[in-house]
Structure formats: structure tokens, C-alpha cells
Amino acid sequence: MALSTAIDRSECQRLDAGDPLASIADEFIPGEPGTLYFDANSVGAMPRAAEPLLARHIGEWQRLRRRGWSESTWLDAPRRIGAKLAPILGAGVDEVIVCDTTTLNLAKALSAALSLRPGRVRIVGEAGTFPSDLYVAQGLLAAFPDRRLDLVADGASIEPSLGPDVALLYLSQVDYRTARRHDMQRLTQAAHQAGALVVWDLSHGAGAVPAELDAIDADFAVGCGYKYLCGGPGAPAWIFAARRYHDAIEPLLAGWMGHASPFSFPLDYAPGDGMKRFLVGTPPVIANAVMEAAADLWVRVEPREVFRKHAALGDLVVALADQELARFGVAVASPREARARGGFVALSHPHGASVVAALGDAGVVASFRSPDNIRFGLSALYHRHVDVFDGIARLVGILREQSWQQDKYKVTKSI
Ligand SMILES: Cc1ncc(COP(=O)(O)O)c(C=O)c1O
Predict the structure, then answer these.
(1) In angstroms, rounded to a whole number, what is the distance separating the alpha carbons of residues 294 and 125?
(2) Beta bridge partners of 332
(3) Which atom of ligand 1 approaches the CA of 129 most closely?
(4) What is the DSSP code (8-state) at residue 4?
(5) Which pLDDT score is estimated for 412?
(6) By alpha-carbon position, which residue is closest to atom 8 of ligand 1?
(7) Residues with Cβ within 6 A of ligand 1?
(8) pLDDT tens track for 4-38
(9) How far apart are the first and last CA of the chain?
(10) pLDDT value at position 3?
(11) Ligand 1 centroid, distance to 72 Cα (angstroms)
(12) Separation of alpha carbons 242 and 230, rounded Å
């Protein structure tokens, strides 16, 4: 992004005027008039097509009922939507399927990967990873008493901890508090050199920053559908497995929808082909309809443009923080370089939770994670540069007037 030393609103307007993704923003509902939403890291914006697609599926429910399974596209949705998300993930269309939650998909990926590395006892992970990722591994390992989870304290300790006893490297691409992004290619390569596989959680990166799953020779990955991917609150998650493993995977969570022939009702499990074996039960038809409205937008954008614009928006937050916020005690808590950052930018302030609460009343939706991170979740699909400028301007107002000090904003918990 070509920014002059002092950034003003007109410069942001100039950047928006040259934005090749500008027209895609019209495909989203803007939300409440006057509110600026920087929560792409939590619940992405609603595609306009969600409502008509939802209405179509509700109509099919009304008319077709049980016949919907055979006369509509309900059953095929997990694969079809997965194929539409594949390009933004850098995956093959047959390597992604949409189903269940991220946590459940982590259990599936972990168990599949463990079964491919028998005799190796350690899973190496990071202590600061998202808690659900840790819980699901802890729970799963109760069923694998010969394996153990080794948590390293920081990113620098990951590679030295790899050795011949390591079955898996188990990592989030992006830290959920600071947006620090791992070098997926380097770590995947290091794990492979040690004979281990990698399970990546891309929840805070997918749809914002590159994953390039096939290019980096990734093994397994999962991520949320409701954040940057804009699939709606509680949207189904996605799971990726490299094609080379498909036939070797005997799912731990075997269910009828992953069966080769579910409607023949055989007594014994036989996995379906490819990613189908990661399905467990009945697909959530209504939630999938909304998710597909978003997936239909992802196939319309050029991934490189998405990543370029996302980096530019993040750079703008960093530059404006330096220019406008540093004098109020706000620091940039995320990496300054875009290639080391995930989907949001975190700014730190000693009373971050109160500031986020005050921002809410000023019509700016951000979020807070302990100890002092104010997170601005950015979307290349629907944010304009002027949105970032205006959001930071409102933050300046709150800090200048110290309105965050009011009693009603005395909060310390995550919001
Ligand atoms: C990094 C990460 N992993 C996993 C999850 C959990 O996702 P789910 O609730 O879909 O299981 C989240 C939720 O925010 C997350 O941020």
C-alpha cells in the first residue's frame, strides 16, 4: 500500500477508489446504519444472498420434507461448499468438506493423523493455542494412552522440540490474542523432515491470509466457517486432508453420512470415498444454505487480491495507530509486518476492556482478549480503507475525552 507519511481520510478514499474488490462489498448487508463492525475474526458480515438462499431451503422444507434428501441438493452440500472454499484455502476441490464444528473437526484430524504415525508418542503443540484445541486433544488422548501432548511455551521452541518420537505438530496458524502468524511452510517442512505430520487450525487466517495448503504440502487443516468466511453465526466448519491420505483414513468418528452407502443401511462401516469419510451425521441443511451464500462469493474473488487488500487494511491500522494512538498509550500488539500477521490487528491499552466497551457505544464493534488486546478483525471483502480510518478516528475521540473511564465501562473480562 502506498501511504504518505501522514494519512488522511482522502488518501483512504483514494485507496478505495482503486480497490478491485470494492464491488464485492455490495454483496454484504452493511449492518446497523452508522456502526462500524471490526469483528470479522468473530462473526463475519452477512451476504445478501443468505436470505433468499435461506428462503429457498425453508421453502423446500415446507414442500418437500423427507423428499428433500433426494429431490434437492441438501445431501451434497458439504462437498459442494467445500469445493467452493477450496481456492481461498489453496486446496484441491476434493480436499475440503464442510461439516460439524472446528473443535469436532480437530478431533477427526488429530485421530486420523495419529493413526498414520503409529509408534510415535508425542504431539507437539503450543501452550497459548486456543483452549478448545487443547481440550479436544486432552480428551482424545484419554483414548490413546500411549501418546502424550507436549506443549511448548512459544513459537521459537517448536522446531527444537521435533524429533523421531513426534507423531504430530498441532498448531494454530494465528494466535487468537495477538494475531502473530506462524510460517506454515517452514514448520510443515520441519515436521515432515522429522517424520511427523501437521494438523493446522486456520480459524484466524482462512479467508484473510494465505494458507496455500497444497503448495506447502499440508497434511490436515480445519477452520471456522463463521469468522472471515462469513458463513453466519455457528456456521459449519471445514476440514482439509491432503488427497494422498484419503484412502488410508479409518475415521475415529465413523457415522452413517461418512459411509460409502448410507441409504443401504449395512451393519458394518465402510468409509465413503475421499473427504466423505469425515462426515458423521445428517448435514445441517439450513445452516449450510447460509454458508453456501458466502461460499458463492469466495469463488468470485481472486485469492491474491484478497490477501493483498487484507494486508493493506492491516498495515493501515498499524500506521494509524502509530500516527494517532501512540500518544494515548496505545501500542501495536500484533506483528507490524503483514506477512507475520493473521486476520486481525491487536492494539494494546492497559484498560483495553473498558476501551472496547466505550467503542461499542461509539458505534465501533471490536473485541478484547486478556491481558490488554483490543482486536480489530478485518475483511478484505467488505471493509473499506475509510472504514478503518473512521473507526480509528472514533477511538481517538474516546481516548482524548477519556470516556472509557466512566463507571459503566469498568469491565476486565473478554468481550
Ligand atoms: C482458533 C480457534 N479454534 C477453534 C475454535 C472453536 O471453534 P468451534 O466453536 O467451531 O468448535 C475457535 C473459536 O473461536 C477458534 O478461534
Answers:
(1) 31
(2) 347
(3) 1
(4) -
(5) 64
(6) 102
(7) 101-103, 130, 132-133, 172, 176, 201, 203-204, 224, 237
(8) 568 999 999 999 999 999 999 999 999 999 999 99
(9) 31
(10) 53
(11) 30
(12) 24
CA of 172 to the centre of ligand 1 (A): 10
Taking the C-alpha atoms of residue 96 and residue 276, their distance in angstroms, rounded to an integer, is 9
User: For this structure, is 227 an active site residue?
Assistant: yes
What single letter denotes the amino acid at residue 275? M
Return the H-helix or E-strand segment holding 314. helix 303-320
pLDDT band for position 2 (cuts 50, 70, 90): very low
Q: State in Å: Cα 300 to ligand 1 middle.
A: 26
- Ligand 1 atom with least separation from CA of 226: 10
CA 103 to centroid of ligand 1, rounded, Å? 6
Residue of 28, 37, 38, 130 with catalytic role: 130
Q: What's the pTM? A: 0.97
Distance CA 180, CA 154 (A): 11
3-class SS of residue 348: strand
pLDDT at 129 over 60: yes
Active site residue 336: no
Active site includes 309? Answer: no
Averaged pLDDT for residues 50-78: 97
Predicted local distance difference test score (pLDDT) of residue 143 = 87
Instruction: Quote the crossing angle between the two packed helices 77-89 and 303-320, to the nearest 10°.
Output: 60
How many whole angstroms separate alpha carbon 159 and alpha carbon 73?
45
